[in-house]
Design brief:
Blueprint (H helix, E strand, L loop, with lengths): L4 E3 L4 E5 L6 E4 L3 H15 L1 H13 L4 H12 L3 E8 L2 E6 L6 E6 L4 E3 L2 H4 L5 E2 L2 E2 L2 H12 L5
Antiparallel strand pairs: 1-2, 2-3, 4-5, 5-6, 6-7, 8-9
Length: about 150
C-alpha cells in the first residue's frame, strides 16, 4: 500500500519509500498528491505503472479512471475468480472501502454494478465502457494474474 500523508503544519504531502527510507514530498493540492502517488507507483510497481501509462497513451479520456483503478490494484482490491461464477469474473473493492462491485464478462465487454457504469457515465472506447472497477480488473489481469 502506498501511504501518502498530509502534514498540516508543514503544508506538504509526504511519502516514504519503504525500500530506501527516502522521503518524498509534494506541495498541497490534489494534482500534486496525484503526482506523488504516480511517482510512488512508478518506483514500487513499475509494471503496473507502465500498464497504466500505456492505457492512458492509447485512451487519454481514461486517465482519471486509470489512476483510480491503479489505487484499487495497489490496495489488493481485486478478487479475480479462476472460474466465473454466474458470469462474474471478479469482485472489485469500492474506492471508499464501503463495499465491492461484481465485474461480469459479456460476449464483447466487461460490465460493472457501480452507478458510474450503470448510469452510462463511465468513459467509452472502442474496447467498451471503463469505470474504475473495470479498469482495476483489466490492469490486474495484465500485471498480477499469473494463470494466463
Amino acid at each position: 500500500m502506498i501511504d501518502i500523508t498530509y502534514d498540516r503544519s508543514q503544508k506538504i504531502y509526504t511519502w516514504t519509500d519503504p525500500s530506501s527510507g527516502e522521503v518524498f514530498t509534494a506541495p498541497p493540492g490534489a494534482a500534486n498528491k496525484a503526482s506523488l502517488f504516480q511517482a510512488a507507483v512508478g518506483m514500487l510497481e513499475p509494471e503496473l505503472y507502465a500498464a497504466a501509462i500505456a492505457l492512458i497513451d492509447d485512451h487519454p479520456q481514461l486517465e482519471r479512471v486509470t489512476w483510480k483503478g491503479v489505487e484499487i490494484v495497489c490496495t489488493g482490491g481485486v478478487d479475480a475468480f479462476a472460474v466465473p461464477e454466474n458470469g462474474v469474473v471478479a469482485m472489485v473493492a469500492s474506492s471508499d472501502g464501503s463495499g465491492r462491485y461484481a465485474i461480469s464478462q459479456t460476449e464483447r465487454d466487461y460490465e460493472c454494478q457501480c452507478a458510474h457504469f450503470q448510469d452510462l457515465a463511465a468513459p467509452v472506447t472502442m474496447n467498451g465502457r471503463w469505470c474504475k472497477h473495470v479498469t482495476a480488473y483489466r490492469l490486474y489481469l495484465r500485471v498480477r494474474e499469473d494463470r494466463f
